[in-house]
Design goal:
InterPro entries: MFS_dom (IPR020846), MFS_ERD6/Tret1-like (IPR044775), MFS_sugar_transport-like (IPR005828), MFS_trans_sf (IPR036259), MFS_Trehalose_Transporter (IPR050549), Sugar/inositol_transpt (IPR003663), Sugar_transporter_CS (IPR005829). The protein is mainly alpha-helical. The protein is built from 16 helices and no strands. Helix content is 81%, strand content 0%. Helix 2 runs antiparallel to helix 5 and helix 9 runs antiparallel to helix 15. 37% of the residues are buried.
Length: 363
Amino acid sequence: MAEYSVFGSMLAVGGMVGALMSGKTADYFGHRTTMWIINVFFILGWLAIAFAKVSWLLDLGRLLQGIGIALTSYVGNIFIAEITPKNLRGGLMTFNPWMTGSGVAIVYLIGSVVKWRGLALIGSIPCLLQMLCLFFVPESPRWLVKNGREKEFEGVLQRLRGKKADISPEAAEIKEYAEFIQLLSENKILDLFQKKYARPIIVAVGLMTLTQFSGLPGYTFYMTNIFVLAGISSEAGYVTLAIVKILSTTMAIFLIDKFGRRTLLMVSAAGTCLGSLLTGFSFSLQDDHYWISSLALMGVSVYFASFNLGISGIPWIIMSEIFPVNVKGSAGSLCNLIYWFSSWVVSYTFNFLLEWSSTGDTA
């Protein structure tokens, strides 16, 4: 059981490593090169899992995957924000979580019919495709300006906006912003612990902790165990979750602007609480397999639907907006580290708790 818990939590350990190296890696190598590095981590991780004959190779694969995911969560959002025009930025930033949720849903569907080694090999295919496609993807214009490559910057910006587009106003704005950033002193994480940053730090760290302690790593990493204990067919369970994920992530795109972030976050938190209660209550039932299976599947579905409505993406949006520009990089690194540490705590302990009382009987 301990080895299984270590395997489940190694993704979070890799996430902590990736969180610590994400900012410096992107700043030094650039966003496009960092995405190549990310795909190398992913491919090596998938291959280690697919061809593992000993447990440490499985752990290594999960560790490499975690590093890749943490780097992606940092670089991907920044890259989208930096190459997108202002009038499209919000929509594409919202579209990104939808694509992520849909991708996870597709993997659930494939995983319902493919064994885990085959699934690991399939997982490496998109990484190989992205590595090839990156040859046709330009570097971030803002990164080019920041690193003094102004000739390339203008060519890339023109390419992104179209041959006939007038890029002069936007180019001037990007250059002005880059000059402003260079005038600011480089802040370290310890600089965040000042009284003037206390409130945003509490809010950001609280939201990152909520994201993981709402139970996501436990549900995600040990979903098969939950289905087996509840007497639910894995195929039926994962197909249901795939549908729920796609529908809920689609709804989130339209609801966030209509109801606002705070309201949607509160509804999402209440829904995940209800889903967890339903799941837990189902296991306290004795000798009524129909109700155990039905309530467990309902609880898991309510949990993921609610999570995708708000907790999935809103904390990251709020975190990016509440810090001043001079400490945003340090704040992002701290929040990313807290996010993955919380994930490790939940993913490592969940299996022990499940084994300790899988039926809710603590006597």
